[in-house]
Design goal:
With 171 residues, this protein is an alpha/beta fold. The protein contains 4 helices and 5 strands; from the N terminus they run E-H-E-E-H-E-H-E-H.
Length: 171
């Protein structure tokens, strides 16, 4: 793993996703080959990146909805993928951006989160990038909204996987 370039775009509030990202990247002995793009709002920061990591924060204001979030995603993530040229993507698909989430500060709808996931998978697919998917967030009251959002992430991942040719040559 030491020679691979990684991009880890947590699409959740950094206070939750940073811990997951850091544990994963620590295990990989991450260095300057790793880029983390945090899609987060102004109330949070990427304050503790690993040595040599670059943190890009979009600065979405509290209460941002689908249109603002997806516009920021469209502007930043494809550019980060193209500039960093990763060998694979660690996609931390958090759902705490839902408007119903008790800890998140954004106001995305289920449709907005599904569109986020579709775009991330499409961008990775267009660049022939393998994706490792983890879930995150999910503090909605009632919890049904978080469960529905997590299921939607997996459904979109399945659609993306089904579009890809089978992997036959693995080192």
């Amino acid at each position: 793993m030491r020679n691979q370039r990684i991009i880890a775009p947590p699409m959740t509030a950094p206070y939750a996703s940073a811990a997951i990202r850091d544990r994963f990247l620590d295990a990989l002995d991450a260095d300057d080959r790793t880029l983390s793009t945090e899609l987060a709002h102004r109330l949070t920061s990427c304050s503790n990146p690993l040595p040599g990591m670059t943190c890009s924060q979009l600065g979405l204001p509290k209460g941002s909805g689908d249109a603002e979030y997806l516009a920021a995603l469209d502007h930043h993530l494809p550019r980060a993928l193209d500039q960093h040229e990763p060998d694979f993507v660690l996609y931390q698909a958090g759902v705490d951006a839902l408007s119903e989430d008790a800890l998140g500060h954004l106001a995305l709808t289920h449709a907005g989160l599904r569109e986020r996931d579709a775009r991330v998978f499409e961008w990775c697919e267009a660049r022939a990038l393998p994706v490792t998917l983890t879930l995150g967030g999910g503090y909605s009251r009632p919890s049904d909204a978080s469960i529905e959002a997590h299921v939607a992430v997996w459904r979109e991942a399945r659609r993306a996987r089904d579009r890809r040719a089978p992997v036959t040559d693995v080192d």
